[in-house]
Amino acid sequence: MKKYWVTFILGIIWLIGLRPVKGQELIGNFDIVSKSKKPITIPFKMVHNLILIPLRINNSDTLQFVLDTGVSTAIITGLPNGEDLSLNYTKEIELSGLGEGDAIKALYSSGNTLSMDGAIGFNHEVLYLLEDVFHLSSSMGTFVHGLIGFDIFRNFVVEVNYVKQRLVLHDPKRYNNKVEKRLKKGKPMKGVIPIVIEKSKPYMTGLVTQKNGETLQIKLLIDSGASHAVSLYTVTSDDIKVPEENIRSFLGAGLSGDIYGLIGRLRGLKIGKYNFNNLVATYPEEEGIKRAVAYSDRNGSLGSEVLKRFKVIFNYQENYMMLRPNKYYRKPFNYNISGIEVTTPVPGIPIYEISKVREDSPAEKAGLSRGDQIIMINGVNATNFSLDEIIDIFQNREGRRLRVFVQRYNKYIKAEFMMDDNI
Q1: Tens digits of per-residue pLDDT, 110-127?
Q2: Cα separation, 133 vs 343, whole angstroms
Q3: What is the pLDDT of residue 295?
Q4: Closest by alpha carbon to 391, among 365, 415, 363, 366?
Q5: Which helix (H) or strand (E) holds 43?
Q6: Any alpha helices (H) in 148-248, and if so which ranges?
Q7: Between the CA of residue 155 and those of 150, 172, 200, 222, 316, what are the distances in Å?
Q8: What DSSP character marks residue 365?
Q9: Angle at CA 32, nearest 5°, toward 30 and 38?
Q10: Closest by Cα among 163, 126, 128, 154 to 51
Q11: SS3 label, residue 375
């Protein structure tokens, strides 16, 4: 059985490419359908900072995929609602990735047609996981079927408007932009960040100021499929220091198991001309990321908690990313202060369960446990909230007192605690 290498993590998503795709190959092409080739606009949903776009594979129902710059080959993680799907030319393979567990089985398929409203692509490769190890739908509160990235970014100039929640896909051959003209003349332009595409993924250079005051230039994967702000890999450099004030926490689910690590704060991050202060950073434990590090020389990743603060234009063909600040730009950086992870057993229905509780967190000290079903928060019935709103409540508002009413088996339990920022 042939083995491929893939890594994935929700909350922090990493994917190592199956293989580089050369620009002249016809594999994975995409094009605008209309003869005018005018840009097309695709509305999207934003959940946990992640972009969900509608997509059809061959003659399938409309599916929802996370738009992830860290993905080289489209991945189907599951069909949670029994959607119809047929794949061409499949063969069974094994996938290994982040975490400490064993490889899992998947189907590799080629020669597939992918389509969105206004665009269609032929001869696409697709991976179908035979086991839904990520449970994206329960973690995001809506039906999610997979991830897609390079297939779209290599074929279009992609404009992401996080505020209006829409994508604009431009035909690169018709994309007339003064940025390219200035760059070709060697003239820099504000908001334009040079990027390098390696193994189908975009990388950039950033400057971090650590809590101890030291500055460090680092190479970051630009990862629109990661909901965090910044993740740094201490194993890649002795100069990356974990802040003294930190907490150990669950960071996400990997293909081969859960990922744990430390959460702390950076004093600053500089991207081009833009500066951020007091960012939340994650520091995954070596065991969870050693496979990813072995396939890349990056020092970490830049996630959507930063990207969403801009209108972003990705231009892989000209090797740049353009940033324009939006209304989220000056918002503070938060993390899961309460210490509980919340999922829904039935996507689309407001039933919420605690899936994990961080050790020594405010929620654990208050007596909350894994498996508790949330009934009320501060006197408001949980059914009045979306999963995104529930998670936001447990992440923000340091100093706020929360009263959480839960059902545990046949008992009803009231827990009360103060949101306390320990980093």
Answers
A1: 999 999 999 999 999 999
A2: 14
A3: 72
A4: 363
A5: strand 40-43
A6: 150-153, 178-184
A7: 8, 7, 12, 18, 9
A8: H
A9: 145
A10: 163
A11: strand
Distances (CA, A) of 319 to 86, 94, 158, 195, 342: 35, 33, 12, 5, 38
Which residue intervals of the chain bear CATH 2.40.70.10? Answer: 3-173, 179-325
Structure tokens at 115: 């389509």
Does the domain spanning 3-173 belong to CATH 2.40.70.10?
yes
- Fold type of domain 179-325: Cathepsin D, subunit A; domain 1 (2.40.70)
- Assess contact for 120 and 114: CB atoms under 8 A: yes
Question: How is the chain split among helix, strand and coil, in percent rounded to 5?
Answer: 10, 45, 45
Q: What is the pLDDT of residue 98?
A: 54
Looking at residue 132, the DSSP 8-state letter turns out to be: -
Transcribe 388-420 into DSSP letters.
Answer: HHHHHHHHS-TT-EEEEEEEETTEEEEEEEE--
- Name, in order, each residue with C-beta under 8 angstroms of 82's C-beta and a sequence gap of 6 or more: none
Show the DSSP H helices in 283-378 as ranges: 286-294, 304-307, 362-365
In the predicted model, residues of the chain with pLDDT beneath 70 are 1-26, 96-102, 176-188, 254-257, 288, 291
Helix H or strand E encompassing 109: strand 104-116
Distance spanning both ends of the chain, measured CA to CA: 46
* DSSP H helical ranges for 211-360: 286-294, 304-307
User: What is the CATH code for 340-418?
Assistant: 2.30.42.10
- pTM score: 0.89
Q: Give the separation between CA 149 and CA 155, rounded to whole angstroms.
A: 10
